[in-house]
Design brief:
The protein is 49% helix and 12% strand. The longest helix has 40 residues. Strands 3-2-1-4-6-5-7-8 form an eight-stranded mixed sheet, with helices on both faces. The protein is an alpha/beta fold. Strand 1, helix 1 and strand 2 form a beta-alpha-beta unit. It comes from Mesorhizobium australicum.
């Protein structure tokens, strides 16, 4: 299927885990077979079962992360692990380790900084119907707000270059971390690529950690915060427009009555309309000022990104069987 990496570049496989004792050993073994020279690190996020023991017995290095949440785990593993190529996957067995060489090969041949394994068949399981609907909804919202670089912003199967990993701020705490990864790439116009990969089912006895409504609300909040941070003129401009429209709606009948009678009997309504008008102006000014700040922050992130050398694709030789043609984002 594949042949080992023939390169001096280092590869790290990073597996964030929480209570995955039934699957983690098989996942580690699969990555050891697919990428024999890779360093495999399992980040145990306060598991109460035998996840850490199973992972260590399978040959992985285990690091404990006390702060709960996938975002906290990603922040820790990106900060602590040094490698030239990073592969991130879940420990639940839904992503096939044998696809890792293809993911890396796509990253290299497309000269990208992030390769995303989009989940083929994510909605086939009836138990995932709600998650599949939310996935489509949030992807459509992402396209509207941040661009069409991605078709599956929630995929947990990704490969990165060192320059991406070390320039990614990682401020999210939970499952919204994948959204932040995607926005980081979109805002800096980083080269990314997607490739469709099969998405498996959890084995019996393994429970999902996702909360359809709880995680959905957190992701919506993250969308709002990322828009505020990266596109403040659109964020505050929208609030300004709402305040302006409300002000004009309240103001219109008061002005009509004033021009007709010369009186302003509804003084509280007039005061409220003027207050909304002033708020509209303040939000508009805030958007303009913060837009300059956001541009400066984007330039700083870009400079940090450029401080790391690019990965040379000619130094990596991978051969895959039955490769799926990648689709550039």
């Amino acid at each position: 299927m594949t042949e080992p990496l023939s390169t001096s570049l280092s590869v790290a496989v990073l597996l964030p885990c929480y209570n995955e004792e039934t699957t983690i050993a098989g996942v580690v073994a699969g990555f050891r077979e697919a990428l024999p020279g890779a360093r495999i690190v399992v980040f145990d996020n306060n598991s109460t079962d035998l996840t850490a023991l199973r992972a260590r017995s399978a040959g992985a290095q285990v690091v404990r992360v006390p702060h709960q949440g996938k975002g906290n785990v990603v922040r820790r593993m990106f900060a602590d692990i040094d490698a030239d190529i990073y592969v991130m996957a879940d420990g639940d067995g839904t992503y096939a380790p044998e696809d890792a060489p293809l993911l890396i090969n796509t990253l290299m041949t497309e000269h990208a900084d992030m390769a995303v394994g989009t989940r083929r068949g994510v909605g086939d399981d009836a138990g995932r119907a709600g998650h599949a609907f939310g996935n489509r909804l949030f992807n459509a919202l992402y396209h509207r707000l941040f661009g069409r670089d991605f078709t599956d912003i929630f995929s947990g199967y990704r490969a990165f270059t060192r320059r991406y990993v070390k320039s990614f701020p990682a401020v999210s705490a939970g499952f919204e971390i994948e959204t932040e990864m995607s926005v980081h790439a979109s805002m800096l116009k980083l080269p990314v690529v997607e490739i469709a990969l099969d998405y498996g089912r959890r084995p019996e006895g393994s429970a999902s950690k996702l909360s359809t409504y709880g995680d959905g609300l957190r992701i919506l909040w993250m969308f709002a915060m990322l828009m505020k941070e990266t596109q403040p003129i659109r964020f505050f401009g929208a609030i300004s427009a709402v305040c302006l429209i409300a002000s004009l709606v309240l103001m219109a009948p008061v002005l009509a009555e004033y021009f007709a009678t010369g009186l302003v009997p509804r003084m509280p309504t007039w005061v409220l309309s003027m207050a909304l008008m002033m708020m509209s102006m303040l939000f508009a000014i805030a958007g303009l000022v913060l837009d300059s700040v956001a541009r400066g922050r984007a330039e700083q992130k870009r400079m940090v990104y450029l401080s790391y050398p690019p990965l040379r694709s000619e130094t990596v030789k991978l051969r895959t069987g039955g490769a799926t043609k990648p689709r550039a984002a």
